[in-house]
């Protein structure tokens, strides 16, 4: 328990600092009220709005842990949203829509996984293919229109609330907890880390690296499907062009802010979803603090760079090296002086 | 024959076959008019892809290029509107800024030992963010020099227009070929792509080379931004979204390995033209919707990668046999 707390300490600290920073500009930041049986407040809003990126980050963490990367998740969100919406428009009902959407997500992940693990294509290009082609597929499904539906049952997934808590929040938290338990209460997490550290060695040690990589990309696809369902349910419509656009970058950023190495190996899902919350806090915080929205991206870039720099272990050793060199130069000069 | 040239030759062959098929269906595609437009419409992409090729050859990636193009357009438009400086001065200023920007990213990548993907991702946010800060509107560029540059073309036989920006793109590719294949710096880039540890042992100055690579890419993005502003006659902070991925796709189609260390600058030009050809074909056809472009480019990307895989597999097996 203490160890896992220590692992997420930098992310928690960043969140606290950010919360303090936003509160300074916007004093009511931490206030939470109960209105009409729902919790309302900026923090709740962050927990809800951050749901898609948090979900993507869960799947992305697993992919990154194997040394891969999944650029297609934003596009998969668009595809699954389009599938769900067209199923609803056709009158097939919510359960069918959900099953079809999740099936589409799994299929997309299976495709990515096969390209990476069976054909041995580099993850970044393998998933780039679906990222480009997938938006075309999503547009084929929606026939280039924005499909809107009125199903309140499905809309509940995006904008409803249970016991005062927004449904998207419940969804991402439970997904993260479930996946984390699955990874840490079984050997699965360890095996994934083994593949990420050295795929050949793990395969020689008897890990089914090929199958595991496919499963990991399918998990990422499933998480993207959930995110796509939430995004679609939230606006009650599927927009093939803009749903999940560039969210893959936010998800990767969340994973990296969570201190996970892009080279693979040890991972922490808790830290990654905290990373997603950090990104959402920055996004919402900039708006609440009253900065003009033109400044969003610049502030975000600077904050992200600062967070990454502080986390870079290399920076500390670099400083030590520079100081060492300066010291050596000083001693050399000193010796020359005495001579 | 050197098996390393197979991907390049395959790319060229596929481009020629595709052009032949397109011309068979629409004979007018085989004209200097379409060829001229192909160069003009893809000029900015070709230039940015030259920088991207060098980055990818070194085993890195530069996600910031699309945003830098947008920033360049906005910077030029706003400077010309507000400062009254001559466009040439503005161009020089801009190229200096984007080159320094690239160099800074290269420096961060090396000093922090952070993946290029993340550093250039932050750069992507930053460049577009600065573009937003300059203006959120589309700013028209109205200047005599721009009128001149937009109107500058050489009329080829068959009334095709070889425009200034098209020629500039070809010259850039040529310069890129020289830098990548004929200079010591280019050799260092290839060495870096082969493996940082080996490169260091070979005496490559890793930090200097990394900084220069991203500075080169930054310069090319700035140049592409200038070309894009000439092409569209305006600066818009939302322009060129996703260009980085199109450029990466063009580089990969051009036969450069994404793992770095192997590839040809000329292949990138063919890759850019292949993607331009697909778009031209879809426009000629008229019944296919624009989203088919994306699907076709995706399929093409896949087939090129599979082809490369097969070729690399064949050549390594042959080496293993020896």
Helix segment count of chain A?
A: 15
- The overall pLDDT of chain B, averaged over residues, is 88
* Largest interface (CB < 8 Å): A-B, 46 and 43 residues
Percentage of β-strand residues of chain A: under 5%
Radius of gyration of chain A (Å): 22 Å
What is the β-strand count of chain A?
6
- Which architecture of chain B would the CATH scheme give at its second level? Orthogonal Bundle
| Helix and strand pattern of chain B | HHHHHHEHEEHHHHEHHH
Category from helices, strands and their pairing of chain A: mainly alpha
Report the top-level CATH class of chain B: Mainly Alpha
Shape descriptor of chain A: globular
Kindly report the spatial arrangement of strands forming the biggest sheet of chain B.
Answer: 1-4
Number of helices of chain B: 14
Give the quaternary arrangement of the chains.
heterodimer
